[in-house]
């Protein structure tokens, strides 16, 4: 599914003066830079990176990928002994999460190849059946891997902070308030979120971090 970013910017700028100013400041939306990569590896990355710094996560993920010549598959990971996976830095809990992901993909209860054809809510429902994958991770998958245009992760700490600052709110907005505010952004709430994330860094958006679900976008709670 492709996003018409020119149309999205025009609509958002017309409907919301705050976003209009952010769009003028940061230019083209960097969601277009996030590549469609292997969904299995994307989900493994999401599990590995939980509660870790970007550097620590990258180190462990690099060691993990090296076990499979850079291309891990559910079958290959499932066949790898626990000791080898623990040796690259996976905690016991994350190992259990990766095992559950592999099992569901192998058994067909998580049809990764079909996710791109499912509606957003069905993708979220399918992914959150996996241990260690919550709604926030599923929403990041929708935005950065499936390039869905209309996702609003109200549980994202960066979005909460960015909205409070950009709209000069006295207190952090509740999920209900975020949803109400976001009604004006439909059907491009994902694009609006990118500009809000970008606004948190005075140096400008760090697009590579956004593409890896890193940088400022972290869940309040998974």
Q: What CATH architecture label of the largest domain applies?
A: Orthogonal Bundle
What do we call the CATH topology of the largest domain? Endonuclease III, domain 1
Which range best describes the helical content: under 10%, 10-25%, 25-40%, 40-55%, 55-70% or over 70%? 40-55%
- Please, how many domains? 2
Oligomer: single chain
Low-confidence stretches: 203-217
Globally, the shape reads elongated
Which homologous superfamily in CATH is the superfamily of the largest domain? Answer: Hypothetical protein, domain 2
Number of strands: 0
How confident overall, as mean pLDDT?
A: 89
The largest sheet is: none
Approximately how much beta-strand content do the residues carry? under 5%
| SS content category | mainly alpha
- Please write the string of helix (H) and strand (E) elements: HHHHHHHHHHHHH
What value does the Rg take, in angstroms? 18 Å
The termini sit apart by 26 Å
Number of helices: 13
CATH class of the largest domain: Mainly Alpha
Describe this structure in words.
The protein has 222 residues and is an all-alpha fold. It folds into two domains: 5-34 and 150-211, Endonuclease Iii, domain 2 (Orthogonal Bundle), CATH 1.10.1670.40; 39-144, Hypothetical protein, domain 2 (Endonuclease III, domain 1), CATH 1.10.340.30. Helix content is 55%, strand content 0%. Helix 1 (5-15) packs across helix 2, helix 2 (17-26) packs across helix 12 (189-198) and helix 8 packs across helix 9.
């Amino acid at each position: 599914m492709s996003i018409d970013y020119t149309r999205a910017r025009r609509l958002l700028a017309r409907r919301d003066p705050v976003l209009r100013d952010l769009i003028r400041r940061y230019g083209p939306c960097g969601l277009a830079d996030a590549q469609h990569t292997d969904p299995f590896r994307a989900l493994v990355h999401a599990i590995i990176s939980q509660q870790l710094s970007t550097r620590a996560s990258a180190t462990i993920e690099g060691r993990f990928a090296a076990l499979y010549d850079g291309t891990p598959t559910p079958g290959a990971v499932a066949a790898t002994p626990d000791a080898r996976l623990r040796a690259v830095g996976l905690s016991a809990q994350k190992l259990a999460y990766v095992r559950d992901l592999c099992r569901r993909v192998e058994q067909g209860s998580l049809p990764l190849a079909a996710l791109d054809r499912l509606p957003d809510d069905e993708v979220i429902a399918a992914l959150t059946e996996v241990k260690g994958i919550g709604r926030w991770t599923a929403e990041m998958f929708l935005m950065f891997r499936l390039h869905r245009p209309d996702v609003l992760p109200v549980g994202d700490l960066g979005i909460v902070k960015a909205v409070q600052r950009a709209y000069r709110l006295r207190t952090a907005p509740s999920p209900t308030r975020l949803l109400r505010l976001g009604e004006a952004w439909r059907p491009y709430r994902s694009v609006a979120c990118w500009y809000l994330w970008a606004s948190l860094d005075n140096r400008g958006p760090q697009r590579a971090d956004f593409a890896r679900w890193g940088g400022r976008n972290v869940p309040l709670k998974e």
